[in-house]
Design goal:
By secondary structure, this protein is an alpha/beta fold. The chain has two domains: about 90 residues, no CATH class; about 150 residues, Nucleotidyltransferase, domain 5 (2-Layer Sandwich), CATH 3.30.420.10. About 45% of the residues lie in helices and about 10% in strands. A five-stranded mixed β-sheet has the order 3-2-1-4-5, with helices on both faces.
Length: about 280
């Protein structure tokens, strides 16, 4: 028997951990970093997946379909927060079939933080301009060179929105014509929003109810969602620059796991991969 083989108790602990309420809707590649941030090592991600597969529990967790990787637009590059934002509007189900509310969301593509949001009963350039103004003032970036990326919808190109961006000194960026996946950051955020476990599948009775729910989502997402695209730290941590201490601590936990199991190739690879602190 290999020296680094997991014991039956360790396998049971993996299964029990994944079944716990806190982690029931999360994949293994989110569970392992969260424990590492607490200074705890149970097993590597590959061990989690292998044990769940052996116990016939390696199925998708949550309602979301598998994510599709798409090439992001390359016109602008963000090297820090409040440099490039992406925004879009999505439908929220109303009280009856065919009735919708409209969720406006602005996301910082560097940190993935939601910097602006609102729910309205219609899609208008005036409403979009209000959301943008509040976001710029909230983030105190009215003197920075900010780029705002959007698709080619009419609210994005309305006269009021254009005037507002000019006054705020915001550079506009639009998706390429007839390229449906040219705004991937906003689309990914909408996907996260609509597949959280408490998403109201029966819709919202009023616009006020939709606003209350989305406010709760933003309050959870920014400080609590460990985002896979930013090495499983939260958007708030990345936005403030607080992610480096977390990544350094996580790296230390992985290195200790490697030292404790010198013959365990999985622990060694986990220590050598993305957990290393960024430069």
């Amino acid at each position: 028997m290999p020296a680094n083989r997991l014991s039956e108790e360790e396998r049971d602990l993996i299964v029990a951990t994944c079944a716990a309420h806190e982690f029931a809707s999360l994949p293994s590649n989110q569970i392992v970093p969260r424990f590492a941030d607490r200074g705890i090592w149970i097993a590597s991600e590959s061990s989690f997946y292998r044990v769940l597969r052996e116990r016939s529990q390696n199925h998708r967790r949550g309602r979301a379909r598998p994510a599709t990787r798409r090439k992001p637009p390359t016109s602008f590059e963000a090297k820090g927060p409040c440099q490039v934002w992406s925004w879009d509007i999505t439908w929220l189900p109303g009280p009856i079939a065919g009735a919708f509310f409209y969720l406006y969301l602005i996301v910082d593509i560097w940190s993935r933080k939601i910097v602006g949001w609102e729910v309205y009963e219609r899609e208008t350039a005036e409403s979009a301009a209000q959301v943008l103004k509040r976001a710029v003032w909230s983030e105190k970036c009215f003197t920075s060179s900010l780029v705002l990326h959007a698709d080619n919808g009419s609210p994005m190109k309305g006269a009021t929105m254009k005037t507002t961006m000019e006054r705020l000194g915001v550079t506009v960026s639009f998706s390429r014509p007839r390229v449906s996946n040219d705004n991937p950051f906003s689309e990914a955020l909408f996907r996260t929003c609509k597949y959280v476990p408490d998403w109201p599948t029966r819709g919202f009775a009023t616009v006020e109810e939709a606003r209350v729910w989305d406010q709760g989502f933003v309050r959870w997402y920014n400080p609590g969602h460990h985002h896979s695209a930013i090495r499983f730290v939260t958007p708030d941590q990345r936005h403030r620059g607080d992610d480096r201490p977390f990544l350094a601590n996580r790296h230390q936990v992985y290195q200790c796991a490697r030292a404790a199991r010198p013959n365990d190739g999985q622990a060694r690879r986990a220590a050598d991969r993305r957990s290393a602190p960024s430069g």
